[in-house]
Specification:
Structural class: mainly alpha
Largest sheet: none
Shape: globular
Order of helices and strands: HHHHHHHHHHHHHHHHHH
Bound molecules: phenylalanine
Number of helices: 18
Strand content: under 5%
């Protein structure tokens, strides 16, 4: 049986800290700069920001509403709100996404751990920009070393989840995320004053829409979901731990703003440096690791900052990875009635094993490709650009049409009055804008319309 009283977050700030801790992670600091570099800079950023505001924020609210009302994990909340309906299967999508994301997330978090060690030994401090890139390549393509760090990170993730919600999550993210913000701002100041940084700022803020591709638009959408931890039940699960008196609208807005701000600040630290040191903006997943050590070299006390930065990056990754693992664990323990500890150990091992294949796809498994992507990129694509937007679409449809306006209003008003216009706007976005936009961007991104057009032209001569 499920325990009568579920754990709740101790304070309002605890909710924000935990949800922001989930949202802010490698997505902001590692992924955002490199996909912005890959998909055209400012134009990509504009599209991303539109998706965050018009689709991300409403869906975040929808997840909080479902979770707090349903009081269960992603699967169980739907089951409880609409018994005997197929909506609960959205929960399966979430559990599948959780495993996939956790697997490659652990790999990149392992890289961050490795860079803590590398920074502390000072080895990066005397390298040229080419050597720094070489160092990253050599490390990620070697068969064993990355696995050690990945396994270590996954072990810590599992351990924190076993310790429990409040103690595990709330305590750490409260102090450390603001500290990360401070370090990024210091990095920003150094990066934008580097000779040649202007080119990078132009790249980041001066849009050239001719550079935007349909795959880029899909990436922007997928990343809005990935970065805000949406569409897979993390925030349904967290919402279920939120007390009634908490104002969900305020919490969701604050988390969205904090997440977007950190991504932008990370972009301002990295892209100017990319141009200043002649790194290729489309260099892919290694971009941050190949760029930032150059910036630290140019700072007084750079070595200390470098260690602190990679420690905090690892912790930011940890507060995200525990939230991902929590989705799987809550499902196994509440729905399949498995012991929490056993569920955590099993889920961690499974995700680690899948992650090992991801890690090896940078080296010895690099030749195995599907749709031109290695295993790592493929899993990232499936989770962020397919499963999460799809999950988000269903959650939007559920709250917009099934849960409905009246109940949403009630749920949002526990923490304070909600303006009528705002409520109507939210429901409109959830009912129409989010689902239709997701469908179009998705079909366009996978080339569906191109195929239809070709068939049409063939048939009509
Ligand atoms: N939002 C996290 C990040 O940006 C990643 C994440 C994805 C966390 C999905 C939870 C769920 O790093």
């Amino acid at each position: 049986m499920i325990k009568k009283t579920r754990e709740t977050f101790g304070s309002t700030f605890g909710v924000i800290a935990a949800a922001a801790g989930s949202a802010i992670g490698l997505g902001n600091i590692w992924k955002f700069p490199y996909i912005t570099g890959e998909y055209g800079g400012a134009a990509f950023l504009v599209v991303y920001l539109i998706f965050i505001a018009a689709i991300g924020l409403p869906i975040m609210l929808a997840e909080f509403v479902v979770g707090r009302k349903g009081k269960r994990n992603a699967f169980g909340s739907f089951k409880r709100l609409v018994p005997n309906s197929w909506w609960r299967y959205i929960g399966y999508l979430g559990v599948a996404s959780a495993f996939i994301i956790l697997s490659y997330y652990g790999v990149v978090a392992g890289w961050a751990l490795k860079y803590v060690v590398a920074s502390a030994t000072g080895i990066l401090h005397n390298m040229s920009s080419g050597q720094i890139l070489g160092y990253f390549r050599e490390f990620t393509t070697s068969p064993f070393e990355p696995l050690i760090y990945q396994i270590l990170f996954m072990f810590i993730t599992g351990l924190v989840v076993i310790v429990g919600i409040k103690k595990g999550i709330e305590k750490y993210s409260k102090i450390l995320m603001p500290l990360l913000l401070v370090i990024i701002i210091i990095l920003d100041i150094r990066a934008v004053t580097l000779p040649g940084a202007g080119e990078g700022l132009k790249f980041l803020f001066y849009p050239d829409f001719s550079k935007l591709t349909s795959e880029g638009v899909l990436q922007a959408l997928g990343h809005a979901f990935f970065s805000l931890s949406l569409g897979m039940g993390v925030l349904i699960t967290y919402g279920s731990y939120v007390k009634r008196k908490n104002n969900l609208m305020k919490t969701a807005s604050e988390v969205t703003i904090a997440d977007t701000l950190i991504a932008l600040l990370a972009g301002i630290a990295i892209l100017p440096a990319v141009f200043a040191f002649g790194v290729e903006p489309g260099a892919g997943p290694g971009l941050v690791f190949a760029t930032l050590p150059n910036v630290f070299q140019q700072m007084t006390g750079g070595m200390v900052f470098s260690v602190m930065f990679f420690v905090l990056l690892s912790i930011a990754a940890l507060t995200s990875s525990i939230s991902i693992l929590e989705v799987a664990v809550a499902y196994f323990s509440e729905e399949l009635k498995m012991k929490r500890k056993l569920a955590t150990i099993m889920a961690t091992i499974l995700a680690t094993l899948l992650g090992i294949i991801c890690s090896l796809s940078f080296g010895i498994l690099g030749d195995y490709k599907l749709f031109g992507k290695n295993f790592f990129d493929l899993l990232d694509f499936i989770a962020a650009n397919v499963l999460m937007p799809l999950g988000g679409m269903f959650i939007a449809l559920f709250v917009g049409w099934v849960f409905g306006k009246r109940r949403t209003k009630n749920e949002l008003e526990y923490g304070g009055h909600i303006n009528k216009l705002l409520l109507n706007g939210l429901i409109f976005l959830l009912r129409y804008v989010a689902p239709i936009a997701i469908l179009i961007v998705f079909l366009n991104g996978i080339g569906f319309f191109e195929i239809v057009k070709n068939i049409w032209f063939k048939c009509n001569g």
